[in-house]
Amino acid sequence: MNRSVLITGGSRGIGRAIAESFLAQGDKVATISRTGDGPEGALLLKGDVIDAEQVDAAFKEAEDSHGPVEVLVSNAGITRDNLLTLMSPDDFRDVIDTNLTAPALLAKRALRGMMKARKGRIVLIGSAVALAGEAGQANYAAAKAGLIGLARSVAREYGRRGITANVVSPGLTATDMASELNEAQVEKLLAKTPVGRMATPQEIADAVLFLASPAAAYITGVVLPVDGGASMH
Ligand code: NDP
Hints:
Organism: Streptomyces chartreusis
Domain Ketoreductase: 3-171
Oligomer: single chain
Number of domains: 1
Strand content: 15-25%
Shape: globular
Bound molecules: NADPH dihydro-nicotinamide-adenine-dinucleotide phosphate
Radius of gyration: 17 Å
Largest sheet: 7 strands, parallel
GO molecular function, one term: oxidoreductase activity
CATH topology: Rossmann fold
Mean pLDDT: 97
Family: Belongs to the short-chain dehydrogenases/reductases (SDR) family.
Keywords: Oxidoreductase
Number of strands: 7
CATH superfamily: NAD(P)-binding Rossmann-like Domain
Distance between the termini: 37 Å
Helix content: 40-55%
CATH architecture: 3-Layer(aba) Sandwich
């Protein structure tokens, strides 16, 4: 579609699948990650999303090469799991900074060009734990829940300018992040998943591509679970 697409955390896992999928449909893709790795054909920018200067420099480089960002996918995320009583203040703050503050500042930066163009798509990668909570993930669940309020506020503020903001909410997905869980944790999560298996990164990417597509122009402020039914109740 030849749009300018910016994806955070495109070096591996879900973000890489998202980047590959946009590339496959002919979009111009830039990714930001700390390693600067990513799929061939994308503009691979090195940067830490919690560093405002690095994000600004990467944004500028993406826009110089591809034009104003038309689709922002905020995907970069980390976990620092522990029970809240044992969680260090730094582990709480790092997770909030990476998973919530960075997406908000990225969206703010992307909105500049989107407002001018009177169109834009913002897709935030949330998590099924946002609404359910998860033992050991108070920091992560709080950050992911925050993304919902962020997306819905952006949806209200800029809907009239042709900009949508939505959250894709993956369940357990086969990436490096999921491989940090032990067998018992995986079994427990899959027992609550009607489809009975993890998602592939591609299945998450497919939902992101839909929300960024012209077919989703009237969908904004939604949380789209891609979790094999795990969040049904
Ligand atoms: P991975 O750990 O496999 O990949 C994380 C990506 O984020 C990497 O590309 C990493 O790149 C990047 N990243 C992390 N921190 C930063 C940072 N500070 N600055 C720039 N880039 C950063 O995770 P997944 O692919 O599994 O997760 C992607 C998203 O999906 C996350 O938001 C996660 O919370 C969410 N999610 C994942 C689930 C799962 O089961 N896997 C379930 C639900 C949600 P680099 O290391 O090069 O910086």
